[in-house]
Predict the 3D structure of the following.
Amino acid sequence: MRKEYSCWDKKSLKAVTGRKSDFSELAKDCVAFANFKGGHIHIGIEDQSEMPPQDQIVTQDLAENVVKRLNELTINVGLSATIQKAGNGGQYIDLEIYRSQASVASTTKGSYYMRDNDKSRALLPDELARLIGDKPSYCWETKVSLSIKWDEADNKKLHRFETEIRNSDRVSSFVKEKTLPELLEYYLMVDERGMLTNLGVLWVGKRNQRAHLLYAPIVQYIKYNDYGEKVFKQVWDDYELNPEELLESIWSDIPEWRESNEISEGLWRQQVPAYDEKVVREALTNALVHRPYTTRGNIFINMYPDKMEIVNPGQLPYGVTTSTILTKSVQRNEHMAKIFYDLHLMEKEGSGYDLMYQVLLSWGKKLPIVEEGDDFVKLTINRRIIDKDANRLYDYLNDYYKLSQKSLIAFGIILQNKKIRSGELSKLLQLSDSSRLRDYLRSMTEQKIILSTGARKGTSYYINPDIITNSRANLKTTLKTIEPYRLKALIEEDLKYHPKSTLAEISRRLPDIEYKDLQSMVRSMALSLSRRSSVFCPERLLA
């Protein structure tokens, strides 16, 4: 059954007919769709059904009345309604809600809503203020700020764009058959008059044209030494390059990105890139594609001996936070993103951070850190390797198993933590619903790549020792994965030498054991003793 999601919903025909009609509720959903990406509401399909009743007939008068009533109840909401026939012959209303590009949609009662997954929720005052401030950046691409005809653009950039589009395997043959003016119009680089939009000027305009565009990106690269002092600076501020050329220039001109670290063990040697090219390009692409071009500010690349920072002006697109960046995707410049994707300059929507997570974990490095300030977003990528055997394990998995990107990300997080509880794993994967964790783990648990202990919220996951053995990875031994009966024996042995210890004291002597596991085992041992002796008091042990 098709599920409701952020750009699609379904309603019973009762919502717009009879005594139980509720146009006010429908108006809230329309406002929420308009403030998000737009969408469709199929009216005439019950909640538990995938299609309308076979004999259901919808009149044109009803469809027109729905649009009329919703127009009376909403502000800045564009609508259209058509009557559609489902596969079983039944009819329903396809209500299309257009995205509100430059203004914020509301009900006539002054209520504001936003689509959040498959729900429409009211906006809080601070969220509304941010949405209002963010709205102009969503329509920047298609506006015409300078009166420049497409044939006045840079001929070399026009030719390169046309050639690369026609050679791309991500572009359909239907699009490739278009003439150059039609291609520019298809990618919204020109309007119906043939005038270059802001996106067109940015991509195929001449240097002087781009310089007059507010605000074409300027990039600063600053290198710091161990003492935090600036030792080198390079700036791309002459407006000569379009986003694709800028990306190439930054990658080729900064030598630190091609440095590597050597991992050695006996005769085995491996060169690990200080900053993997896929990660760097994806991070730079995000900075160029997702920044608000209505905000003044440079993109900063800060290079330190142990890390790299990319600082972008503005904030994250509305609806995305630092704790949902892995699971939510909202494109601020969607037409530029399409060009980047079609030219193989970025991954598809919503998969950029997935790629960064997977690559960094496969090299045994920390996860990227995203921070948001009042007027900036900072991405930090660490250079240091914290698990030198990670790549050997990933190579083994790729050779003998077929795993999804989600599974590989979860595997890397479990590997770095040695043993991790389901709640903490869900948090690191930015999953609001713990049930979604199954999608990440199902394949690995079925193939016994990872094992688990405990039940429900107390479930913990760890790598199957056989996988470590077969991959010949020389992982450091840890007590995190110790079996319960061995843990009990270890605690008993500890208490022989340190009788009357508190739980905190035992924990300090066994730092590898998770505190919750230690607490659970000590409590179990204390209660077992208390049942055998009415005078035994476990309070001190559990203190």
Observations:
- The CA atoms of residues 526 and 538 lie 5 Å apart.
- The chain is about 40% helix and 20% strand.
- Residues 515-532 form the longest helix (18 residues).
